[in-house]
Design goal:
It contains 7 helices and 9 strands. A hairpin with a 5-residue loop joins strand 1 and strand 2. A 3-stranded antiparallel beta sheet has the order 5-9-8, covered by helices on one side. The chain has a two-stranded antiparallel ribbon with strand order 1-2. The chain is α+β, with helices and mostly antiparallel strands and 174 residues long. The chain is 31% helix and 29% strand.
Amino acid sequence: DASDIVGKCVTEGVDKWNEQHPIILLDNGKPDFSNINGKANEKSYEKVNEKSDGESIHFSIAHAGNYAICVVADDVVGIDIEGNRRNISSKVSHYFSEWENDWVGEDEDRFYRLWTVKEAYCKMTGEGIAKTIGTVHFILDGNEWKMDCGGCKDIKIYELKIDDYRISIVKKLQ
């Protein structure tokens, strides 16, 4: 089971690292490493994520079906993987803007592309899906996703497709 694999990666694979750099929960519940290069992270998302000092390490994990994925970066990052679930798009379309709903239509692949971008963004900010997913909207400009907002954060979005699964990574730019 993918959740068992993720658990083993986090607990067994990083035991030695974790002794010196324990994983902490920020005030908003987002996991992060503490004490990177002798510097203890503040337990506040805004303070930890205002700007990378070049020495921070951030991570995000996700799983779906038989896949478990992790991304590690020098700046704030979020990842999501989805796929192989049918008829889900009609259940969550209320989280999409008019443009997003029109673009997705009945296309499952487009749904997973958009959903993983939105969920990875929510993980990157640490604000959570329930609070954020319906308030942040994206548009596709050529082949590049852009946030559909006025005061957008500087982010870069990466997309992958493996079998019937879509993966999105959202990384804050320095």
